[in-house]
Specification:
There is one protein chain. By secondary structure, the chain is α+β, with helices and mostly antiparallel strands. The protein folds into 2 domains: 2-53, no CATH class; 73-105 and 145-291, Sandwich (Jelly Rolls). The protein has helices at 2-15, 17-25, 29-38, 45-53, 91-94, 103-108, 112-116, 125-136, 164-182, 287-291; strands at 73-77, 150-151, 153-154, 187-194, 198-203, 210-218, 230-234, 241-245, 250-256, 266-270, 276-282. The longest helix has 19 residues, at 164-182. The protein is globular, with a radius of gyration of 20 Å.
């Protein structure tokens, strides 16, 4: 019975514009299952995987031709990009702290050595050997343990708290804003909360190539002249490590590539007492032309 409910849900996503729009805001199984349940469809993650494997999705329009770019990173104040400025109104509803997250327990998982690795070059042979060992262990000290490369909170894994419906509604409105701005389909790729002393270690996103957009905000401004969160990347052409201090309400664009010589290694660190949020999206190849910042 639940397998048939899953099939009916996927058909409804194709037939109903409201469901299709909400699916673009969902980033993983917990959100998809919660969305289905709100609309009266009950099934398991296994049944969803089984049904999705045998169901063809809607035909997608061809992407814009890929452009080779020498610019690795673009950053703007959100308010300075008129097409994206409406996102400012949605940030208060997006910047949640799910009550089930125990910050004291979270802090016990902090690893000073892991944090120090964000200062290493991904091209360094010693770093590469460590990275291979950790990747082989799926970044866990033991099966089922917490991943060490993600010392942060994935907001979209927390779907049972009272604030989640308003949060998801804001995500759906954000998709509408971005699709108007870019004139094409946009999907959420992640919603992340970086509490104090958090980080995402070096990675490339090479398995999901294309342009990414991240909206970044904090709970408060950093003190003048004080420590900040930062985004760090390695320039593919020179190997230089570039560190970009952050501030409130910025939007960042970068391109993930699969060419071994063009991998965009990057990491994010919040070593401060502030709380940081970032909301990611897959955006079209010609995003700069579409929002007028080319």
């Amino acid at each position: 019975m639940s397998l048939e409910s899953c099939k009916e849900f996927l058909r409804a996503v194709e037939d109903r514009a409201d469901l299709a729009q909400q699916m673009k805001a969902a980033t993983g199984l917990p959100e998809v299952l919660a969305l289905a349940a709100r609309h009266g469809f009950e099934f398991t993650a296994r049944e969803l995987a089984e049904t999705s494997a045998t169901t063809a999705g809607p035909e997608q329009p061809p992407p814009a031709p890929a452009r080779r770019t020498r610019f690795h990173h673009h950053e703007y104040d959100l308010a300075a990009v008129p097409a994206l400025a409406p996102l400012l109104d949605e940030l208060p509803a997006l910047k949640i702290k799910p009550p089930a997250v125990d910050l004291a327990e979270f802090d016990t998982r902090f690893r000073a050595g892991d944090l120090r690795s964000t200062s290493d070059s991904p091209r360094d042979p010693e770093y590469q050997a460590w990275h291979r060992r950790m990747a082989a262990a799926q970044w866990r000290d033991a099966p089922g343990g917490h991943r060490r490369d993600f010392h942060l909170v994935n907001l979209d894994e927390h779907v049972d708290h009272p604030g989640y419906p308003d949060y998801f509604a804001a995500k759906t409105r954000v998709i509408a804003v971005l699709e108007r701005a870019f004139g094409s389909e946009v999907r959420f790729s992640g919603s992340l909360w970086y509490p104090p002393r958090s980080y995402r270690l070096w990675h490339t996103n090479e398995t999901q190539p294309g342009w990414r957009m991240y909206v970044v905000d904090l709970d408060e401004e950093f003190p003048p002249g004080g420590e900040t969160s930062f985004f760090r990347y390695q320039a593919p052409d020179t190997g230089e490590l570039v560190t970009l201090p952050e501030r409130r309400r910025i939007v960042r664009f970068f391109k993930a590539e699969q060419d071994p010589d063009r991998l965009f290694w990057h990491c994010i660190v919040n070593p401060t007492r502030r709380h940081r949020w970032s909301f990611g999206f897959v955006v079209p190849e010609d995003w700069a032309d579409r929002i007028g910042v080319a």
